[in-house]
Design goal:
Shape: rod-shaped
Radius of gyration: 33 Å
Distance between the termini: 108 Å
Order of helices and strands: HHHHHHH
Helix content: over 70%
Strand content: under 5%
Oligomer: single chain
Number of strands: 0
Number of domains: 1
Length: 252
């Protein structure tokens, strides 16, 4: 480590500036790594806990009775939107008693519910990969900055050879060694950034896929429970009016 510090000190101002810039990139990338890994872990754990509880929910209305910790998760917020749309469709259906084409009416209601659920889904999923692209930028930029510092240092070494008129190894080696240190620093910055970019990107995609699975399930359950609700009400009304259908001509 002392050798690395010594070679950085022996570098020219251009090399030292590039090393300083790459060290700033390193600090930036590690700050992003810690924040994104911690955030994705919280989201994944919270969504997994919500999903386990959601599996035991018999109707969408029971979602409102779940704990606030569960409802404040991304999956919980999406499920709450599904409940809101369920209540809206039920209220609209009961208030519009003069609808002639119920098939068209319900199809329009389901389309509006689907659009809202998908809109909220997109907003909840967007923060999952926030800042991850910066890791990709750092991992692709740092090696080239290191290479630039190496090429610049070698140019300086050859210039010293020409000015001193000597190609002795003792004259050339220190300059070339100092030049190569920028490539080492660049790779040291790029490798962790590239690794955690792929890691965070994979975690974000998996979390988004799980959210999409919940979104599709909400839309299916919304339609099923709406039809079940009104089919049950229609059956109850028919049973209530059935004794009056005989017109007084029942068995004597």
């Amino acid at each position: 480590m002392n050798i690395v510090v010594q070679m950085i000190k022996q570098s020219d101002p251009m090399g030292q500036m590039l090393v300083g810039l790459m060290l700033l990139f390193s600090l930036w990338s590690w700050a992003l790594i810690f924040t994104r890994v911690a955030s994705l872990k919280r989201v994944t754990t919270a969504n997994r806990n919500f999903w386990q509880r959601f599996q035991s929910v018999r109707t969408l209305l029971e979602v409102d009775r779940m704990a606030m910790n569960d409802l404040n998760t991304p999956m919980g917020q999406l499920a709450k939107v599904g409940v809101d749309e369920y209540n809206r469709i039920v209220e609209d259906t009961r208030s519009h008693t003069r609808v002639k084409d119920w098939s068209f009416f319900l199809d329009a209601q389901f389309s509006m519910a689907k659009e809202r659920i998908e809109s909220v889904f997109a907003g909840l999923v967007a923060p999952f990969d926030r800042g991850v692209f910066l890791l990709a930028m750092i991992s692709s930029t740092a090696p080239f900055l290191g290479l630039l510092g190496t090429v610049w240092g070698i140019m300086q070494s050859f210039y010293e050879i020409g000015s001193q008129g000597s190609a002795d190894l003792q004259v050339v080696a220190p300059g070339i060694a100092s030049a190569l240190i920028t490539t080492v620093v660049g790779l040291g910055v790029a490798i962790p950034a590239l690794f955690f970019y792929n890691y965070c990107n994979n975690k974000a995609e998996r979390a988004a896929d799980e959210m999409e699975e919940l979104k599709d399930l909400l839309i299916v359950r919304l339609k099923r429970e709406i039809f079940s609700t009104f089919f049950s009400e229609n059956q109850a009304q028919q049973q209530y009016t059935a004794p009056n259908l005989g017109g007084g001509h029942g068995p004597r």
